[in-house]
Design a protein that fits this description.
single chain; alpha+beta; Immunoglobulin-like; Jelly Rolls; seven-stranded mixed sheet; 13 helices; 50 strands; about 35% strand; elongated; binds 2-acetamido-2-deoxy-beta-D-glucopyranose; transport; DOMON domain-containing protein
Amino acid sequence: MLLAHFALCLLPAAALAIGPSNNSLAWIPFDPTQFDGNAVLDSNGQVQLFWKNGADHSTFGIASQSTGYLALGFSETGAMTGADMAVAYIGDNGSFVFENRHATGFVTPQVSLDQTDNMRLKAGGQANGVTSFIFEKKNKANCLQDQADVANDSWQWFIYAFSDQNTFAQHAAGDMGKQYIKLGTGNTVSLNDARNVSNSKYLTVVQPEVALPTDETTYCYTLQKMPATNKSFLIGERPQPSSPLLHHLVLYACYGPADQYVDMLGKAPNCDWQNFSNPCTGFVTEWAPGMSARTFEEGFGKPFGTEFYEYAMLETHYNNPQGLAGQKASTNYTFLYTDQQVGTEIGTLTLGDMQVSGWFMNPGKPLVAHSTICTPECTERWPSEGITAVSVFHHMHYRGRNARVQIVRNGTEIAPLSSLHDFEYGYQYSKALNNIKLLPGDQLITTCEYNTLNDTAPVPGGQSSRDEMCFAWVDYYPLNNVLGCTQINPQLSDPSQPNETVAMCLQSSAQSPDIYASTSFTSSFQHLPVSGNNCTDNSFTALGGAAVVKTCPEKDICFSLNIPQQSTSSGPGDIFFQLSAPTTYSWVALAQGTMMSNANMFLMHSSASGKNVTLSPRMAPGHQMPVFNDAADITLLEGSGISNGIMTANVRCRNCTKWTTGEMSLQDSSTAWLYAHLQGQPVNSDDKTVPISKHDGEGGFQWDLSHATGGPDVNPFTSAGANVTSSSSAAGIQTNTRMAQAHGALASIAFVALFPTGAILVRLANFRELVWAHGGLQVFSYAIFATAGGLGIFIGNQDASLQEPHAIIGMILLGALFFMPLAGTIHHRLYQKLQGRTLWSYAHIFTGRIGVVLGMINGGLGLQLANTGRAYITVYSVFAGLMGAIYVSVMVFDEYKRVRTSSKPATASSSASAESNKLDGDVSEGSTGQ
Ligand SMILES: *[C@@H]1O[C@H](CO)[C@@H](O)[C@H](O)[C@H]1NC(C)=O
Ligand SMILES: *[C@@H]1O[C@H](CO)[C@@H](O)[C@H](O)[C@H]1NC(C)=O
Ligand SMILES: *[C@@H]1O[C@H](CO)[C@@H](O)[C@H](O)[C@H]1NC(C)=O
Ligand SMILES: *[C@@H]1O[C@H](CO)[C@@H](O)[C@H](O)[C@H]1NC(C)=O
Ligand SMILES: *[C@@H]1O[C@H](CO)[C@@H](O)[C@H](O)[C@H]1NC(C)=O
Ligand SMILES: *[C@@H]1O[C@H](CO)[C@@H](O)[C@H](O)[C@H]1NC(C)=O
């Protein structure tokens, strides 16, 4: 007896420790007992996940019977979109590589900026046909690039992928999957799982087969009589979506339907949906693409029966965008129920916009919010001890992006009921909540956010999948008679009604909804930073929270930049920037790029009225003056203008990630920007193509875009909450122009004046200390050149131009000429000894000659790179050309004479003529025998 009891207790305990699989875990390369939990990710038990929750970090271990890359993602919905992923594989050099990546959609996840803070590898490897690794992850992620929080007190969606290939790419179909896993030990009521419950009965709600029309949208209604009982309880559901065209299933409870509706019983489904008004107002449950079966924990159930409702209406929505003909569909929705009284009765509260149509959203926006308020007057009707929410189902259509239900209690916002980001239409699910308490008098704000970038016309709310919906269905206990709580505008349904916002409270105890005015639509509340994922909440805030970097490369010229959070995750997102400068400037320009010749430029000058500014997008193909660029999608925003002698342009750019001659990733931590200006008379023109005079100053700087990323997609320069950080790279930039001038001047002196003079000297002059004069002068020239080179490298580092040919040639010269004194000395010594040129001689002489010519040419390249005026280039060309011509003539003449002399019969080598001294320069001391 005692033994039997023990065995019974041990079984579930053992199952917890080694997971629900019947597989042995002997193949796991690490010690599974270091973890608190284990779950099988794939259907074969060949991918095993282990976890141990911690206060700040949680530890995860994953092992797969495969010999290639292995990836584990923390996802919001079970989709790849927005997932924060740990990826490991054997790299090219044979070492084990671990990376934090993030997925912006159903594409190969990108390497994250942060490789050290969010996730840390603790152990890992590939051996004996098994790939495995253990890592630590922050529970609260940083607000960077789709890093996700770990729901360590509740349920977490995991996605995984594995392969036998070590090259990381998008997984092959089949080697991937998703699992909703309960990480915490907290009590959750609603399980996304088809569990069998002993002593339960089955009930199938059937929509008999109908022939679907070719219309895009069809709704069918089928009335069902629930099993006769005073009171029974739905405890689980097994939706069986059998048609690929099925968009949703909803089961409504009918509270005392009129006879005309009861007549529908046993009849064919009513698919004349446009003329049908569904009388059943109680929401029981829904299936939508992505949803699994569900089961309540033991002791919980949703009541039905004569004490509640006897009839239910099944609504099926078919979506046939291709207008397929001859489609037939039937649907079964099976439920588990029990007639045993459950300990806790569950109800469902409908939140969101119950006025399905009549409203519209702006097209062409990356994120449009649609909110409805559930008023305190309605929640006051809950029992005095309040209710406990156990799960929420957020529903939107294709454009849905984020959804949330916020709670305002007593004038202050508290932690939200739910906040779901990266919604995916095909991955809808019932989100398990960690028993969230709601009190009478709470105000609930339900918001859905949509991406309408693909739309050109206003997007309507409506029943078609092409239109949008916003619902949040909350399962809670204990059951009460409030079925729905929202706001409506009576005029949307009936043009003769007033155009106003009123509250609606729907109760099963009343025949019709209660409609009343409420101050909660206008009353303000204190908005606290909500708990949960702060990163996403930033983008939820209407104002404030925007991250702005600001750089003032000259003391009176400043530039600012903001990248809305969503721009880094979806498509070619918007960016916002600001130019500001006093009216003492004729124009000021900001440009993306490393060089004016390939830059995406925005030029600000005063408008015709002299009261506002004109912002002209320009490009400078080749080295011409910048011309108007009509491809730039920019808008001058509010806050732009001229005030107190300062010109300000607040700008939104829609396509600044790519332009004809370049691109900029919004996730780059180091991006190159340029600026230019001209002091003088105002331009005073509205013409974006107006010819402008050449700049009198310019420079470059870098911005770390991660510091500029955050906030909603709205003009951040008018919101007080914008979070401005000065760009750290701004320091020292204002000296760039002067530095570039010094660099150019010093290098020109070295290559146009000093080096050639030193070389000509040794060819033409003839005096005792000639070799010392030559050496001394060239070493001095090199010192000047090295100073110029140092400045050049500093500038190149700042404006990311070190890969330019000018910089590369400069650095090669700097390196090669460094060895000239050494080569010169050896050459000189050997020449004295052997009285003839050696390899060292040729190395010294020709490195010098090539170096001088290359240096002169490189000066021209430098002027081009710096995009200086034509005048500078002309002056330089004249001087460099003249000196170059003299230098080359002397060298050619010298070689010619040398060839002639050496072809003559040699006289005594010890009495080399003065001429031959000159021929080799170095020989002069040879003969004078110092
Ligand atoms: C629905 O259930 C009925 C029995 O209740 C069965 O005959 C039918 O095949 C089922 N249909 C589907 C689509 O599963
Ligand atoms: C917009 O259209 C593109 C191309 O058809 C599609 O890939 C994308 O998902 C659409 N975006 C939305 C928000 O519907
Ligand atoms: C709301 O605030 C009032 C006074 O500030 C307090 O008496 C009341 O208990 C509060 N209600 C809730 C639900 O916290
Ligand atoms: C209804 O009121 C809103 C807000 O006051 C207004 O923007 C809208 O134009 C009005 N609609 C009609 C049809 O008058
Ligand atoms: C969110 O940010 C605020 C302000 O930075 C902070 O006080 C709060 O603790 C954060 N919430 C979480 C859950 O990290
Ligand atoms: C300048 O023009 C912009 C864009 O049209 C506008 O938003 C802004 O209010 C104007 N500023 C002034 C001072 O008129």
